[in-house]
Amino acid sequence: MSESLPGKNAGIGRKVALGAGIAMTLAAIMLLVPSLSAVLPQQPERDIPNISILPPIGQEPRIIPQDELVQSALLAINKDRETFGVSPVALSPNQAAQVHAEDVFRNKQISHWMSNGEKPYMTYTRYDGTGAVSQNVAIAGFTKEQYEECVNNILYDCERIDPVTTTQELQYEMMYEDKECCDDGHRNNILNEYHTHVSIGIVYDEYYLAFVQNFENNYGLQIEMKGSQAVISGQLMKGDVRYVSILYDPPPDPAVYEQNKKSLSYSAGHLVANVVKPLPPGYYYEKPEGYSLIVAERWDVSKDHDVHITFDLARAVSDDGVYTISAAASEGEDQEIFEAASHSVVVDSESG
After folding, report:
1. Residue pLDDT, tens place only, 68-87
2. Residues 348/319, Cβ–Cβ less than 8 Å
3. Which residue from 99, 184, 177, 173 is spatially nearest to 138, judged by alpha carbons?
4. Is the distance from CB of 2 to CB of 177 less than 8 angstroms?
5. CA 20 to 30 Å from 129, out of 8, 60, 94, 204?
C-alpha cells in the first residue's frame, strides 16, 4: 500500500485500495424464508457538490467540469489497456462509483465499504447495474484531522490538489507501482480482458480527492426477481453459462462499515448454493458436502446463446441479509471462467 502521511509542509498523501475479484468457490446452507424484499432500497445522501480547486494566489480559479475529469480518467485507463493489448472499456452510466466516491470524500476514509455497510456489488445493483462489478478505490490528500486544519487555516502551506494531474498520478500508481502495495491487484483489475465498461467516480476539493473505478462485465444478461423466482435472461455476447452461484452477506449497516472500513480488499460473501441444470429422468445429482444444490426449474441456452434460467431463490435462504446471484461463463470447458452478471437481493423477514 503506497502511503505518505503529510505534515504541515509535506506533499499530498496517496492511498489505493484493491477490489478483489468475485470468488467462484462453493459453500452453503438452505432453508425457506417467506419473503424476499426489494434490493437495498435505502438511498444515500448526495450532498457533495462538484467542487473546483483554489489556484495559487494571482491565478484565476480553475474549474474542472465533472465530465471532463471522467473523460480524462477514462482516456488514461484505455491508454494503459491499449499498451498491453487489451480492448478498451466503454464508459458506463451507472452511478454507484460516483456515490461511493462521495461517501469516501464525506468520511475521509478510503474503503470498499459504503458507510451504510454495502459492498460495491450491492450498491451497483441498487443503481440498476446488470453486469458484474470489480472495484478500485484511490485517494489523495490529507488525513481527516489535517484536512480540517488545512480548511480552517490552522495549517499553512497545505499543498492543493489539481484533480486532472492527481487522477493521472493515481492511475499510474495503480498500474506501475502496485506490486508492493497490493500484489498488482489494481493493475490486474485495470487490464482484465473480460471488462467491457467502467464507471468512474471523482469528488475533490483543494485538499482531498476520492477516485473510484467500478469495472463492469456486461455481456447481455439480466437477472431479475419475480417474487421469490430468480430469472436470468438475455443473449450472452461471449461464451456459455457454466454455473450460477448464490452468495450471502449479513445485513449491511454502519456497524459492518466500522468493522471493515480499513480492509484492503473485499470478498463476494459466503457462497450458499450452486444452481444446476435439470437432469434427464432417472439421473440425479449426488449431494455435495458443505453446500447446497438447487436444480433450476428451467435452464435453456440456445445455439445463438439466448439464455433463460429460472429457479427459486428462497430455497437458498436461511437468514436475513443480502443474497447475490452470480452467473459465471466461459468460452469452453478449459477456458477461464468470468462473471457475466450479478444481482443482489436483500432479505428482510420482518418487512413482509
Report:
1. 899 999 999 999 999 999 99
2. no
3. 173
4. yes
5. 204
